[in-house]
Fold these 4 entries.
Entry 1:
Amino acid sequence: MKANREMWGSKLGVILAVAGSAIGLGNFLRFPTQAVIHGGGAFLVPYFISLLLLGIPLMWMEWTIGRYGGGFGHGTAPGVFQSLWKKNRFIKYFGVIGIFGPLVILIYYTYIESWLLGYTFYSLTPKFQEALATGQIANFLSGYQGLEKNQFFSSLIPAYLFFLVTFFTNFAIISRGINKGVAKLCKVALPFLFVMGIILVIRILMIDGISTGFKFLWTPDFSMLKSAKVWLAAAGQVFFTLSVGIGVILTYSSYLKKTDDIVSSGLSSVATNEFAEIILGSSIIIPAAFLFFGGNATVEIAGSGAFNLSFVTMPIIFAKMKFGLFFAFIWFLLLFIAGITSSISLIQPSISFLEDEFDISHEKAVKIIGLFCFVLCHIPILFISKGVLGELDFWAGTFCLVLFATIEAFLFSWVFGINEAWKEIHHGATIGLPRIYKFIMKYVTPFFLLIILVNWIIQEGIPVILMHNVAPENKAYILMTRIVLLLIFFILVVMVKVAWRKRKLSSDS
Ligand code: PFF
């Protein structure tokens, strides 16, 4: 066990670090797209139900077990799970998902984040203006991603350079540690992000006739609620946006002191994220797209690809405004900043794992993980046209999230025991949780999650495993991606085994 683990220096620092992890591309890109394709305002009904019954309880659970495990010197799920269920020899291997998931999300998330840096730069160039003026902004995106060669881009080199800058910026921040790196960045980045978001919302509200666009959001199509798919999508969005159910918050909270307040800090981070998601995230893209393109076209654009609304539609909308390119610049910069405070949180579990379980120094851990991730990031960069990005998102950003959250909830309420857990949450708390949450955490959250998991496996998991929707020419690439993922998982399992054997030997001697 590492002798002196770093601890968060201030309450504001942790709250902003967790909120920074939560507020990301999920709020501004994923949420509007999900809402548009799942019934507009109607999506908010399962969304808020999932938030109250799954998201918020999971946030508190993860803060609690993270702090608890941190007390034993463990900052990642294998060790944290093991300290919650000491008698079970296998539970630590389930915890591997809490390192694997963030690592895999990081691999594609960093690349998408780098597009935003690229677009922040290009939004100020004549090339971008030309693409907008000639109605070729979609080609601009495919050229940038290397999907086609055109007059805007003849190679992947510009995208690769922006990727390099993004990647090294992330690792430079994380190399400075949780206080001087993560907390310091979030203290500056989040206020800046909110200011930019509010400027954009005000600009959107000033568009003539924008209330028509808002009507879509607040006139729900309730017939959508009959579909289980909408409920699964809403729950998935809640996990993704809050960064819960994957091990990241757990790692951050392992650096809390036993006396730190979890109840109010956990809730503050959720509230900050929801402000960014519901107020800022949904008020920018959705009403503007509806006003300019109409309902059907917007649903179609959103359904045609996760990035089209934000990378194609938004610049077109901004171009119709006075000083539009300036707003486009702010839009992409906001997204880039939102992305970076999230991606650094995805790196932290792997680093903590090496430090805590192998006693490796912080500098060395950053270098090892940096090298490993750098190599892996080339998978989505080189094979994006083969559907690899979606495949990575599916396993790590959807499946692992629900699976890990289910395990975590049962461990918390049933193995550790809700009474013990309730005491642990309230340690250091200045306000008490409403008692109804004791019931929710014991009966509702774990079983609701189990229902989602089973439904999800039946509805989506099986067709995906059998590659029903994969084009024949892409099957080999998808298979290779799965083999690489399994290999990463296997390496982590072996590392956990080695770490525990070493620990046992040293405690025996
Ligand atoms: N919450 C982030 C977003 O909304 O973009 C994404 C994310 C970060 C998911 C960290 C999971 C995670 F562990």
Entry 2:
Amino acid sequence: MPTKLYEGKAKILYTTDDPAVLLSCFKDDATAFNAQKRGTITGKGAINCTITAALLAYLADQGIPTHYLETVSPTEMRVRAVQIIPLEVVVRNVVAGSLARETGLPVGQVLSRPLVEFYYKNDDLGDPLLTGDRLQLMELATPEQVSTIQHYALQINQHLTAFFNRCGITLVDFKLEFGLDAQNQIRLADEISPDTCRLWDQGESDPERRVLDKDRFRHDLGQVEAAYETIRERVLKAVTSGAAV
Ligand code: UDP
């Protein structure tokens, strides 16, 4: 019998008959600002499951080890059991969100090279930004693991940026999580979706209309479901047309 292993803000993880495999179930629940804002985005679970599956399969084809195995229902995928490293790895190509708020750099400024940032995945502490020294101090990962994660994060950014460009979308920034599998190998885990990426429509110059991600929910911009659906359609079109290969 599958039992609930963990319930997060957007997904529930269940055990399966195989201890090496978990079932990840995507929910319609949406939260923002460290769960101070809560709501529902109708159909989000199915949309994010589809987008995550397509993007993780694409990244696996590019040689990135991931936890994804197969999709088994509109909202559920089988994934390899991994021990999540408690880091939120954020990659940024364009200034937005906390980088704009905390540095004063203008929203929309294109970075001359991608920025990789490590945040401590800890809701009680509000997911604080870590320095390299604090990372070492806290022993959240070995220096070798940190360097592997940084390398994967930059590779993933290159692949996803190219993929989304073919969809007419700018990948502004995104958050990744990594885990260790039974062989102690680092694998990309969690999800890649409009919940965890900032995605701007290249065909729109208006700073509100171009937003196709969770910022529509965070800032009450409306048309949240439609934006997520647009991402699903364009991602699937890029995959099926082979444009992603
Ligand atoms: N992000 C995420 N989960 C988090 C924090 C951030 O998926 O707990 C994503 C967010 O959607 C954005 C990127 O990471 O694509 C950078 O987020 P930022 O640090 O700018 O945070 P925010 O503006 O949401 O405070």
Entry 3:
Amino acid sequence: MQKLKISGGKKLVGEVKISGAKNAALPILAASLLSEKNISLNNVPQLNDIATMITLLQSMGVEVVFDDTMRLNLNARNVDRLIAPYDLVKTMRASILVLGPLVSRFGSAEVSLPGGCAIGARPVNLHIDGLRAMGAQIEVQDGYIKASATKLQGVHFNFKEISVTGTENIMMAAVLAEGETIITNAAREPEIVDLANFLRNMGANIEGDGTHKIIINGVNKLNGADYRVMPDRVETGTYLVATAITGGKILLKNTSENLLESVLSKLREAGAEIEAGEDWISLDMQRGNLKAVSFSTSPYPGFPTDMQAQFCALNSVANGEAEMVENIFENRFQHVVELHRMGADIQIKGNIASSKGVDSLTAAPVMATDLRASAGLIIAALAAEGDTIIDRIYHIDRGYERVEEKLQQLGASVSRENS
Ligand code: EPZ
């Protein structure tokens, strides 16, 4: 198992290019199943989760080729296996995103139930309810979702709880369904809009993405597409927080302030000086005086749950007290007990973590438990005195492309070790 060794106390200074968004690329890759024509994608991040999705698509018969300019070319003309097996789905829950496309184009799918993960039970009942509402026959048997449909029918489906991948699955089901589908209480994340842009590029008839009401009129066939995936807003926020906690200065390129306004406003409240342009964001924290900031996670455009662990680390050494409320997932504070080992003063009561800033954290061996928790531990280690060893770093490789290389570019002392 690989570990990261970080010698803390160095200011992050420099420039980093932000990669393509994992949580946009995953549904867009799944959507390649909807057409028999060539799909060409740019700015797909090189991440373990992306590799898993590609392996899954190839197991179904999708041809996938990375060309020398790192463009990803796919063709689903010869899909002959409509199954997403447990051994792949258990490593990457977002595999559930092939369910909608398979039922929509082929009228049949057998997808392993994703099961829970470190941060929560992660049920997919809303995905199933939506497809049933569109006329799919679905049974859940032996740990698999078995779905069949002659032709999905457009429907008005209201999500009783906002679900990002749930919205994405129903969107992908609706683009080839008969008639009009209206999705209400839809997720509004930028990744939803990116998927909609990609589907429109393929010839889908979609409007209202980015609002709570999405209207889709089914078409008979979809074409190919040539598309560039949006920037990763969580990677962007992670490097901004890492720079803030170390009192550094950073310029992030290939990203956009519009993707994470709630995060930028919290960083300004914490004392960071932030400027932004068409495709860049800069943060300067060299004048110091980091102030603790309270927040409460909520669906977009609220404060993102995927940035909660990073701000837990920031608040642990910021001046003052803060209250951090996690409203999306039931078990997303596992990084806090690891931060305690580094000297953080954070008390958890239910879904609220209350922090009191300490002067400094001290290095300790810690363990990553999930993707964004590991980002929080890296941020804490960058600020801590001494050498922190973070174990189970495979979690970080799921969502952060070339993480030690980008940190080294910023002056961090970080290395990957095999244990
Ligand atoms: C997406 O997960 C993201 N993953 C997550 O990012 C992100 O944390 C989450 O949205 C919230 O923004 C991808 O996009 C691949 P949800 P998703 O369905 O779609 C409940 C990361 O770090 N719910 O919006 O699985 C659910 O339990 C990952 O990159 C149901 O009850 O999240 C949760 O409490 C972590 N039934 C809430 O809704 C359902 O059928 C929101 O979940 C579906 C969801």
Entry 4:
Amino acid sequence: MSSAHYQALEPQTSDEDNEDIERPLHQNHLRSSYTSSSSSSACNAPHPMVRKASGGVARRRCILPLVGVALFFVAFCYLTLSGDTRIALGLGGGSEDSEEGSHHGLDSINFRPLNESLHICSESYEDRRQFMQDKPRSEYGQLPIIYFVTPTYPRREQIPELTRLAHTLLHVPRLHWLVADDQEKCNGYMDTLLNRFGMPYTHMVSPMPSKFRNEKPAPRGVANRRAALQWLRQHNLTNGVLYFGDDDNTYDLRLFSEIRKTQRVSMFPVGLIADYGVSGPVVRKGKVVAFLDSWVAGRRWPVDMAGFAVNLEYMAQYPYVNMPYKPGYEEDLFLRSIGLQMSLIEPRGNNCTEILVWHTQTKSKKLGMVRLESKYLDDRSNLGALLLNLKLMGVASTTENEGRNALISKNGKEKPHSAILS
Ligand code: UDP
Ligand code: MN
């Protein structure tokens, strides 16, 4: 198994970039104006996205005297830059649909920079598969790689979900599976499992910050998706396609050939979402013009996480790419952070008439508990090794004294443990 253990890597954005995202917008301007005024290079080369939106403002910043007009400068930036930075963040303005873009409470959202604790447990770039679908691997040539990001978290269904998903992904050529686990520590069992599939993968851990754990609803799968975004950025990947694929969804193999074509942002309907059993774009004359989804709540992009794919070269133009810890708004705000406009959306799945991905959900149950004395968990029977495996998979644990004794039967009758295991 190729296995690498890294320390958390630093995000590539500068502190200034991070601050721009982290703080409420008006605070960002205060801070960036101070930074710019003390650095001539910052004056000469403002961030390209900011420059695009506010070249005149940037020039005026540079000619202001540093001391005498400092207060005026701060007030000026506060009043004028907010709209520009909104555009830089893709939060609104400047588009044909900008009138719908005013979003309830967006300004107060905590756009924390992508600096998750990102720890790589194991990874492999080797593809040991011989065949995918009906062709040998070599015949897939240089197709763009799909970076399939799967947030996952420990619970008893985790290993079965990932096994099932892997058996779909194994049919897909040129795919790198980013498995981002919402926990502190690497799970060696999962490393072995992922490696055994023989496809390129990265297994990382990035736990949800503890302050969000008790929130209802909690931002599920956000810290780990953010870690995967950080990984993509750290690897400077500008060729390929990003897709967020949860561990419990069901994927049609045609989805992958559809999203691989993505030039900027592809969209398609997702089955089994909420009240309508579907969420997806409304398409007229080959263009996305609106959305069908039973929960709008001010979202400009009311789509499910599984309902879009992004070209990495397109995404690379947006250094503020982000996914905030705001339950229900993750997709919308992520898509805003990459400057999405309606005209850029590529409808897929036969003009959004087909379902290529299903929002299936697995019924969750709490950990199993098997009461058995430890003296019987040796190699006289299979039970010691079996229960150890179940413990490693997070499915069941063994106890010596809690609850009812485990039922062991023969010929339809319960037997004492000693009769079978001694
Ligand atoms: N998830 C996570 N941490 C959590 C809860 C969920 O990483 O605390 C992952 C989960 O494995 C899934 C995604 O986030 O891949 C979405 O969660 P879930 O499927 O439970 O939500 P749904 O969208 O189905 O309501
Ligand atoms: Mn789900």
